[in-house]
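Rotation project, supervised by the postdoc (A.L.). Task for the rotation student: set up a whole-complex structure prediction and record inputs and outputs verbatim in this book. Inputs entered:
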Amino acid sequence: MNNTELLSFVVGLSLATPVLAGAAVGVGDLFPPLASAGLAGKAPPDTAGKVVLVDFWASWCAPCKASFPAYSRLNAEFAPRGLVIVAVSVDENPSAYEAFVRRFDPPFFVALDKGQNLVRAVQVPTMPTSYLIDRAGRVRYAHPGFRGAATEQALRKEIEALLSEKTP
Amino acid sequence: MRYPAKLLLFAALVAVGGAFSGCTTAQAVRVKPWERGLLADPTMDPNRDPLATAMLEHVYFSREAAEGGRGVGGAGCGCN
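Outputs recorded:
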């Protein structure tokens, strides 16, 4: 290896490091499988061939509190048609997670990402962030943050569109 | 084109050191959104007397006809 090649290698390595550090899951990407994500508590529901809404939340996040009643409404509206809502907590304190779940008593599946492995793999841009995943397991819509009725309305429209798509 | 060996060694050390120290991107040194549980705790809010602060803000507004610019609301969760 001559000097020029060595210099190219070093510069290339420094530029490639952010890529090696792990890219965020975005629209068009396959969502990491929930079954092998190591979520604490009950086993996640079967999501194969279903439209799935994955929400990352935390007990210390105020918009997350506002989002739960909206997800409950969406669950009541779309779960009979096959929508699965999975709310993943990134809380580091399990008792704070349990208190939040007791208080809101959500009608959809909630789980604790105890080691924060799933959220690290997904690299959410803000708290909360929700991902709408199509029947093929691909992220079709991402909602960084929760903005009340506007987000709920957008989700309703997108869920409707994904549910009307045929099974792959 | 040949470079002096010392320059190459220096460049290599800077590049490799920078790459692995987490200083190559602004994102790498930021607290991740899911790691802000402790920052979001109310005890992390430096404003220990919100009422007194509101009063001082009101005095400031009345005297200077200006307000704001003193930080953001809430604690450190950076939500939304």
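Student's summary: Chain A touches chain B at residues 2-4, 6-7, 10-11, 13-14, 17-18, 21, 56, 58, 60-64, 90-93, 96, 116, 119-120, 123-129, 145-147 (CB under 8 Å).
Supervisor addendum: Residues 59-168 of chain A form a domain with the Glutaredoxin fold (CATH 3.40.30.10).
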